[in-house]
Amino acid sequence: MNMQLTTDKGTVYLEGPVSRTRLESMEIDEGLGNFRSPRRQKEALMDIADLPEGLVYIAQIDEKIVGYVLFHYPGEYSRWIRHPRLLELGAIEVSQNWQKRGLAKALLAEAFKNPALEEYIVITTEFHWHWDLKSSGLNVWQYRDMLKKVFGSVGFKRRHTDDPEILEHQANMLMVRVGQNVSKNHADMFTDLTYQNSILL
Length: 201
Fold this sequence. Notes:
By secondary structure, the chain is α+β, with helices and mostly antiparallel strands. It has one domain (about 5-200): Aminopeptidase (3-Layer(aba) Sandwich). The chain has helices spanning about 20-25, 40-50, 105-110, 135, 140-150, 165, 185-195; strands at about 5, 10-15, 25-30, 55-60, 65-70, 85-95, 120-125, 155-160, 175-180. Strands 1, 2, 3, 4, 5, 6, 7, 8 and 9 form a nine-stranded mixed β-sheet that branches. The relative contact order is 0.14.
């Protein structure tokens, strides 16, 4: 059963994983423009829903998407693609019109009810240039602390790494959630990947 969230603007329904067909029939809120235009974001959600490993969870009201979280394999040129039991939380976004109502935490809580995610290490690479500092009213450090709390609500922990993109700015961070059914071998393999470059020194 999908979750409902009562807000001052009405009842929001959390669904997932949703199919491309389900997404096609829906509108997308104009406030979902942090990564790309809302129209292109809806297309991206549909493309990810089509992937064999793609998982898309949405928050919707009156058949309009007001938030989402998505999962997929890491990019083919990423160091993380070498891990056989790893998924990336590719993005989480709540419309500017719906922020500060608990939707991000609720979306994550709904997604991680999925037992399939306990078979994986799930990572999210958080880069400060993607953060919506303007509408949030937070500075970069406050925003990072907020993200740590939101992701921490479902068991993510910050991990150090020598990934050059993460090291590019002190506010960037790698957040990791190790599923309950991940083997020690796969956990150790991930630890080795976090410091890939140091092996070459």
